[in-house]
Amino acid sequence: MKKEKKDQPVLQNRHLEFDAHLFENEVWLTTEEAMAHLNVSRSTMYRLRKHHNIPSFKLGHSPMYPKHLLNKLFIHKALRNVNNS
Question: What angle do CA 33, 35, 41 make, to 5 degrees?
Fold first, then answer.
């Protein structure tokens, strides 16, 4: 007998907030576009998505990434790294 999957949060980062108005004019990236935008490999994108380190939403069978939230997330992490060094 299979266990039922519980709904898991899409994103566990507390500093990002989802706003309905944000998504009205959002630029959505495919996996390939997000890989090029972040300059990472396909396996890195998969790992980041699997561990809920980046925001992604499934559109059919394809994950889509909101460009604005990716930028906001990585700018926040970059600033934190600069401040800690």
Answer: 150
